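ok so i was messing around last nite and threw this chain in just to see what happens. nothing serious, just curious
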Amino acid sequence: MRLNNIEHVFFDLDHTLWDFDKNSALAFQEIFEDENLNLNLDDFLEVYLPINFKYWELYRNNAISKEALRYGRLKDSFDVLNFNTVDSTINLIADKYIEYLPKNNHLLEGSMELLLKLKDKYRLHIITNGFEEIQQKKMEASGIHEFFQTITTSEEAGVKKPHPQIFEMALKKSNALVEKSVMIGDNIEADIIGAYNYGLKVIHIDSYGQSSQGQHPKIEKLKEVLNYL
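result:
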């Protein structure tokens, strides 16, 4: 089922176009080597990933600050692994992670090919809850920055997806009409339900086998976006 009368395509960034899991693992690998941490990376990532997901959910719901997220996800992961370290080391790792993360530039399969096919037909935009200081760097390092006419971050909007205000700001910046816009993202609550409730059409990239609510278009691979656009 193709989506008609679409002029503006809004993308989430992390886990949608930018391969957050791979780039994050590479950043931690470099940090562990720099700091000579006697900790197996695979063991760390196994506990870190669900903890990080939990902390981002809290951050998205304004239950914790950015600083609490950056510290807490590491502290909790080390605690689960019984890896003893001091707060100064945790804070150092948190700072290095923000520095190293955008240096890696892996995209999810099909990202570049999709953007190349869409760029001449639609106006493309980003709406992201990621930290403002690194999102632009990620896009520049991975070679996709040039595809997007606007980038709207949660820190700029003062609220995070799924709050309607961030979608309102994104559409205002892009001079887009809601009925001629579609949101593409991986997170059911933030990207799909948030955008749908604001009035946008949506496409859910279900890379992790999540259960999607409603009858929203759902895909597993980015190239399937072309079935709708």
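not much to say yet. The chain is about 50% helix and 10% strand.
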